Amino acid sequence: MAVTLTDYTLTYDSDQRVQGWPSFYSYYPDWMIGMNNYFYTFYRGELYRHNSNTTRNEFYSIVYNSTVSTVFNTSPLENKLYKTIALQGAEAWSAFMQSDIQESLTINSTWFEKKEQVWFAFVRNENKTTDYALRSVNGIGNSVSIDTSSPAAVEVNFPVSMQVSGIINIGDILYYGLTPTMCGEVTSVNVNLQAGVNQLIVDTTSGSLPPTGTEFFLYVKNPVAESHGILGHYAVTTLTHGGRTQAELFAVQSDVMKSFP
After folding, report:
1. pLDDT surpassing 80 at residue 119
2. Which of 36, 82, 193, 244 measures 20 to 30 Å from 126, CA to CA?
């Protein structure tokens, strides 16, 4: 297995409450020294004095992000659903979560809302390719015909005896086959049973064209609007702040419930 080596700067905190190595920095100086209560570094023959201005995360004319990583791992033997994430701090950060069962997902900083001085957001799963393996998948039934002449607007027709309207909505993700293959996002639900119309319009440009004959279809609810959270024994969470201003972060928490298969 290939090992990727990355240069970084590791700092030591001599405070009695810490006495450890708490922080990693992306910048990598040629030499560093502390003198007269200031921290100096040398980089490519030039001298820099740190902590002397209010601009954060910029070193040697390169702007970096601030990142903090933590693990939610209460009751490690139980499978859990991580439903929300809450930040106690000055402003919202972007969050990146990954568990041992589900692929990683990103929670944009704009999704957070401030409630009672806490930045709060639901864990929304944007992954549209493997959600069929979770409990959010639902079966529809066999189609009677499929028109794939327009990949951005594939017409999937079902028998009028099958209920389609009310169980599937625009934005849901359609799959087909006994081994589910992602078809695409539902863009329209056309139902007029008296006229014999019971049809889904699917944009397959981000998925796969289904066969033109009869096929079994399944769907997953819109992963953002009706998120089930992230499933796993633990959740590794990385918070990222990309600004150049001070952004205090005090605590991170998540609402967790036990998963019952």
Report:
1. yes
2. 244
